[in-house]
Amino acid sequence: MPYNFDRTPNRRTPGVLNKWTYYPEDVLPMWVADMDFPAPKPILDELRSAVHQGVLGYELASNTLLETVVARMDRLYRWKVKPESVVPVTGIVSGFNVAARAFGSPLTPAPSPRGRGERRTGYLVQPPVYNEFHEVKNNVSIPQIEAPFIEHVRGSLLRYEIDWDLFKKRVRHASMFLLCSPHNPLGIVFARRDLLRMAEICIENKVLIISDEIHSELLLGDTKFTPLAKLSPEIAKNTITLIAPSKTFNVPGLFCGFAIIPDKELRDRYIQVVQHLRLHVASLGLRAARVAFSGQCDGWLQELRSYLTDNRDFLVEYVTKNMPGVRITVPKATYLAWLDFTQLNLEGSPYEFFLKKAKVALSDGKIFGGNGEGCVRLNFGTSRKVLKQGLDRMNKALHSLVT
Ligand SMILES: Cc1ncc(COP(=O)(O)O)c(C=O)c1O
Questions:
Q1: pLDDT tens for residues 194-233?
Q2: Mutational pocket test of ligand 1: of 93, 126, 183, 256, the residue with most ligand atoms within 8 Å of the beta carbon
Q3: From the CB of 180, is ligand 1 less than 6 Å away?
Q4: N or C end of the chain: smaller count of CB under 10 Å?
Q5: Which DSSP string corresponds to 101-120?
Q6: Residue 22: which region, alpha, beta or left (left: phi > 0; alpha: psi -120 to 50)?
Q7: Are residues 171 and 202 in contact, defined by beta-carbon separation less than 8 angstroms?
Q8: What is the mean pLDDT of residues 156-182?
Q9: Rounded CA gap, 75 and 20, in Å?
Q10: Do residues 205 and 129 make contact, with C-beta atoms less than 8 angstroms apart?
Q11: Rounded-to-integer distance, Cα 263 and Cα 195, Å
Q12: Rounded average pLDDT over 328-356
């Protein structure tokens, strides 16, 4: 193993506000979704060479970069994308907000997409889901429509399934479906047949799909991923896919992602909003993305996945063995687990409880909507040692309740 994920650098840099310095020094951060591992060397070398050259001027996405993105989609999934379909964005959150502004917002005097008669503006989400999905309604003043999952519990393990009747009923009120695939925070990697069924229902109801696939390369165990738009040309025409190297290669602070929009009409409208809002991607983000997607970092990624898979297994076993009454997902992707404490009588929310009693900062379940209250999201993208330390602290706090 040439990469040592057991060693993580100290991120408590004075004057810097990040996940390690946000809370007081005695708190262990297991919240916001970045990992504690340094980015792979080829990316760091590219950034070092840009800094060494000294001029950090404006840059645009080169053809080489767009072709690199296209080649990666082909290599990973045999998904044929044209370079002109790839639109650089300043991160995935801006990517889906642009889509909402372009296609769902009353702020934008554009015809409804797909030539619909009536003008629906709502967007559908599947909660509990990534907190920024819930902000879209405020950012562009459109209603949010929810189709929560069905929860299954077996012993300490949680599993989620699409409630198809609800999905079909709710989608009719939307103009857009904001899909999180793989799903944050539940770690679901949707089966091909489920993706197909969601896409078909959306097409039947003239609902545009925005598929946030930022976590698509963080696959655990032998999980395989299918980009939704790859399923058929008709689905591709109705989909905006958002991808980025940020989560996979741990460069989220560089804010660079890509919207893949095969349909020209949708793409032109999308680019118009990007240009109106002057969303320029930073040059270091573009440079990092080119190297990240080139394949030079794939050896690192393979080992990262194996380390994260072991972390997931360690976490699930730890919770199952030591924390009776606590329920946990077994994520198939991401470095995020979902823990349900509703069976315990905790003082306040589990987020507050563990911050106060265990000095562990988690993400509060309620920010993900649905019935996220009573739950937390735990980030296991760290060394096994830090993960164990966090779990030991949480376990001790829980045991102090019964002794
Ligand atoms: C599903 C999902 N989309 C988007 C983002 C953030 O994207 P960006 O930082 O590129 O805006 C995250 C970060 O956690 C995420 O989980």
A1: 999 999 999 999 999 999 999 999 999 999 999 999 999 9
A2: 93
A3: yes
A4: C
A5: HHHT-TTS--PPGGG-SS--
A6: alpha
A7: yes
A8: 97
A9: 36
A10: no
A11: 19
A12: 96
Instruction: Tell whether ligand 1 has an atom less than 6 A from the beta carbon of residue 156.
Output: no
The answer, yes or no, to whether any atom of ligand 1 lies below 6 A from the CB of 92, is: yes
Ligand 1 atom closest to Cα of residue 32:
14
Least confident of 99-113, 175-189, 215-229, 385-399: 99-113
pLDDT tens sequence across 91-146: 999 999 999 999 986 544 444 454 444 567 799 999 999 999 999 999 999 999 99
178 Cβ closer than 6 Å to some ligand 1 atom: no
Report the interhelical angle of 264-276 vs 92-103 (nearest 10°).
Answer: 110
pLDDT in tens, 52-100: 999 999 999 999 999 999 999 999 999 999 999 999 999 999 999 999 9
Q: How far apart are CA 128 and CA 334, in angstroms?
A: 15
For residues 122 and 133, what is the distance between their CA atoms, to the nearest angstrom?
Answer: 13
Residues in a beta bridge with 259: 87, 242
The answer, yes or no, to whether any atom of ligand 1 lies below 6 A from the CB of 244, is yes
Which amino acid would we find at residue 119?
R
Q: Which domains does the chain have, with CATH numbers?
A: 28-40+298-402 (3.90.1150.10), 52-292 (3.40.640.10)
Percent of the chain with pLDDT over 90: 93
- For residue 103 and ligand 1, the question of a CB distance below 6 A is answered with no
Q: Is the CB of 93 under 6 A from ligand 1?
A: yes
| One-letter amino acid for residue 89 of the chain | V
Residue to probe by mutation, ligand 1, list 18, 90, 129, 184, most atoms within 8 Å of CB: 184
CA–centroid distance, residue 115 to ligand 1 (Å) = 30
- In the reported structure, the alpha carbon of residue 344 is separated from the centroid of ligand 1 by a whole-number distance in angstroms of 31
The whole-angstrom separation of Cα 106 and Cα 120 is 10
How do residues 249-288 score in pLDDT, each as one tens digit?
A: 999 999 999 999 999 999 999 999 999 999 999 999 999 9
Question: Ligand 1 pocket, 213 CB below 6 A?
Answer: no
Q: Which two tokens stand for residue 25?
A: 């020094």
Q: Is the dihedral of CA 7, 12, 17, 21 positive or negative?
A: positive
Strand partners of residue 337: 378
- Among candidates 180, 179, 230, 175, which has minimal Cα distance to 208? 175
Say how many Å lie between the first and final Cα of the chain, rounded: 43
